[in-house]
Amino acid sequence: MRRCRPRSLSRRVPRPRGALLTTALLALGAGLLSPPPPAAASAPAATTASAVTSASADDYCADQCSDILPPGANGNATLAGILAHRTLGTRPKHSSDQLGPYTDLVAGHPSLTDASLAEFFNDASFGVPEDQVESVTRPRDDVTITRDKKTGVPHIQGTTREGTEFGAGYAAAQDRLWLMDLFRHIGRGELTPFAGGAAGNQGLEQQFWPQAPYTEADLQAQIDRIAASGERGAQAMADSRAYLDGINAYIEKSKKGRYFPGEYVLTGHVDAITNIGTIEKFELTDMVALASVVGALFGGGGGGEVQSAIALLAAQEKYGTEKGTAVWEAFRQRNDPEAVLTLHDGESFPYAGKPENPRGAALPDPGSVTAEPLVHDREGTAVKDAENPVKAPAHLRKLRNLHDDGVLPADLFAKPHGMSNALMVSGAHTASGNPVAVFGPQTGYFAPQLLMLQELQGPGISARGASFAGVGMYVQLGRGQDYAWSATSAGQDITDTYAVELCEPDGSAPTKDSSHYRDGEACEPMEKLEKRNAWKPSLADSTARGSYRMQVFRTDYGIVTHRATVDGKPVAFTSLRSTYRHEAESIIGFQMFNDPGYVTDAQSFQRAAEHVNYTFNWFYADSRDTAYFNSGSNPVRAGGVDASLPVKAEEAYEWREFDPGPNTAAYTPAAEHPQSVNQDYYISWNNKQARDYTSAGFGDGSVHRGDLLDTRVKRLTEQGGVTRASLTRVMAEAGVTDLRGEAVLPVLLKVLRGGAVSDPAAAEAVQRLESWAAGGAQRKETKAGSRTYAHAEAIRTMDAWWPLLVEAQFAPGLGDALYEAFRAKLPLDESPSASHGATGGHAGSAFLAGWWSYVDKDLRAVLGEPVAGGLEEEFCGGGDLSACREVLLTTLTRAAATPATEVYPGDADCEPGDQWCSDAIIHRPVGGITHPVVHWQNRPTYQQVVEFPRHR
Question: What is the spatial distance between Cα 673 and Cα 634, in angstroms, rounded to a whole number?
Answer without folding.
Answer: 9
